[in-house]
Amino acid sequence: MVLGSVAAVPSILISVSDGLWSIAVVDCVALLWLAFIRRRRESPFRWRARNFICLLYLLGLALLLKVGPAAQIYLMAGPVMTALLLGLRSALFALALNAATLLGVGYYANADIHLPGFAGAPLLEWIVITINFAFVNALMTVSSAVLLHKLEISLQKQSAITVSLAEGHERLRESEALYRATFENAPVGVSHLDLDGRWLAVNDELCEITGYSRDEMLSLRYGDIAEPEDVEADAPAMAALLRGDIPSLNREQRYIRKDGAPVWVHRRTSLVRNAAGDPKHLVVVATDITERVRYEVELEYQATHDALTGLANRNLLNDRLEQALAGASRHGRNVAVLFLDLDNFKIINDSLGHGVGDELIKSVGERLAGCVRDMDTVARAGGDEFVLILADAESENEVATAMSRILEVVAGLYQVARHELHVTCSIGASLFPRDGADPETLLKNADAAMYRAKEGGRNRCKFYQEEMNARLGQRLSLAAKLRHALERDELLLHYQPQVDLRSGAIVGAEALIRWRHPELGLVPPSQFIPIAEETGLIVPIGEWVLHAACVQAQSWAAMGLPRIRVAVNISARQFRHKGLLESIQQALRLSGIPPGYLEVEITESMIMYGPEETIRLLRNLKDLGLQIALDDFGTGFSSLSYLKRFPIDVLKIDQSFVRGIVSDREDAAIVKTVIGLAHSLELRTIAEGVETAEQAGLLRGWASDEVQGYHFSRPLDADAFIGRLREGRRFVIDG
Ligand SMILES: Nc1nc2c(ncn2[C@@H]2O[C@H](COP(=O)(O)O[C@H]3[C@@H](O)[C@H](n4cnc5c(=O)[nH]c(N)nc54)O[C@@H]3COP(=O)(O)O)[C@@H](O)[C@H]2O)c(=O)[nH]1
């Protein structure tokens, strides 16, 4: 509009002053039209562009007619502007229109343009003018169109780049937000470190794991919270990571929390390189696995330790033994394997209950652990059995000394709940390499030696000897044969007289079992009674003894022989067996023997534990009217205060004391004291194992009631015993 005004207003003024009214009108109309187009801003662009081009064309045409060739300039502007505003196709049309207009107006209106050499050919002249005009006009139009097109393409590209940049920026922002959210909210510790191990970024979870605040973490290095040995162990793998030999580094290790507590983490470290491929940062993802590690440690502990004592169990024992043997082989050393079993533990367990038994086992375990060096192992093999590995044992003597010490330590007094308990143990030892080259053999041989120690009288230790395994085999074969002894009627009773010291008369008989095996001959009770105890066969065998002894005693009376007591040994297992009372009642009923003529012998060791329960059981027996004798008196640790509460009738003084009464003043003093004690408690005494007249005389002098022993008679079979009763002989005892 400004340009139009700048061009039109001077033209109007000049035209008016020159009286060229038509030109002034044309300029005015053109200006008004331009103003009209300008005001129609809301109209479509193409409509306004067409109006403007139309204005240019008509202005050019009008000025060509009125002003002449100078007006061609207006015609020329039409196609150029069309190209700019409406595109090349419209511009070509405008160009063609221009050419036609110029040719028509020039030729017909005879515009004042002439070319030299075309004087006689005006049409040709105008064709040449038109071609030149059109050529120049086309040049301008096409160049404008091409320029515009290129500009457009360039603008489009620019705008595409701008869009893409904006999109990229948005994507970057989203990605950054996603990364931030992931980093911050990850349920694992995520961190970035530089290659010197400085923390560059840490998330909350890592702070939680380490106990440090974010700021504190950022002032630390990796080495400040890692165990030094882990850092050292990591060095080769870190070097491999930096070289690109491995994609990442996975480790389970400890971090040290701010409060000093260790925390187990699974750490995955990966490397970030710069564009040039050089290592730049480390990304460390740490997961807290403390609970899992704790659980694994717990499981491992449970799999290798005994739950009751906390000692090594069989698994760990085997491992340790293998290690000890490997070490000993390398250095040419010995290893001792000690198999230890508590004596009479079953009695304690049965009489005082498993709670007390467990506590005792724990205490024994603690004592054993205190007996050995750090390099040794104490394991609980099950029940009341323990195994000790003495690694690097120098000699058999050293092992013997260790075993003596263990016997001593175990044999001390135990205070469990309200009970004061005495317990002893038997130990068998085998030596590597002498007695075996592998754990299994060494354990088996130590076990065999332990059995031999038990047989030898308990509270002792034995080294393995080759024949022990053969004995163990014999024991097993004996156990198998014993199972058939009852049904095959291989058992019988012998009777040993019990003599009244005042009258010298036989007043009782102890029934002593014998086993006559078709191949083995007469097997002594010392060999098969312990096997019967272990296998439980003692219960039916004991029942048989009771019945047989009662029937036999009644038959003596039936034969008119003097009525005497029959004493029957009751084993520990039998004593605690529920059926004992009924079994005795049945024996009494079936035989018809008056209850007062049946004496049951229980040993001191059987009543040592659980006095209340023992008193109850003894009362039940006493209620039947039986006599109760306490056998082997003096060998156990029974409390004298309990003794007076037990409903017993007889104290049988153990033969180990009686044996020495002539030569040993202490034995003599003990026996005298026991006799005095028994009498003050109104108990009868029987001194057993009397082998000489001298012993018998002393015992008579000390006022023992009865005696029993080889001096008077060995145990006799039933017929021989009947013969002895028939003799009616009275023994003469000098004292
Ligand atoms: N539960 C059961 N135990 C029983 C039964 N029968 C026997 N036994 C126990 O077996 C052990 C060995 O008995 P045994 O070989 O019969 O020996 C007894 C006597 O022969 C022996 N004795 C007797 N007098 C003397 C002697 O002067 N010297 C000497 N060296 N030995 C002698 O003592 C054994 C009897 O001991 P005790 O029982 O303590 O009175 C033995 O422990 C028997 O208890 C059974 O049926 N059931």
UniProtKB/TrEMBL annotation:
Cofactor annotation: Mg(2+)
Annotated Pfam families: EAL, GGDEF, MASE11, PAS
Limits of the GGDEF domain: 333-466
Sequence ranges assigned to domain PAS in this UniProt record: 175-245
Entry EC no(s): 3.1.4.52
GO molecular function: cyclic-guanylate-specific phosphodiesterase activity
Key words of the record: c-di-GMP, Membrane, Transmembrane, Transmembrane helix
Taxonomic classification: Bacteria, Pseudomonadati, Pseudomonadota, Gammaproteobacteria, Methylococcales
Residue span, PAC domain: 249-301
Protein name: cyclic-guanylate-specific phosphodiesterase
Organism: Methylogaea oryzae
Record field: transmembrane: 20-37, 49-65, 93-111, 123-148
Catalytic activity as recorded in UniProt: 3',3'-c-di-GMP + H2O = 5'-phosphoguanylyl(3'->5')guanosine + H(+)
Domain EAL: 475-729
First-tier enzyme category under EC: hydrolase
Protein's GO biological process: cellular response to nitric oxide; regulation of DNA-templated transcription
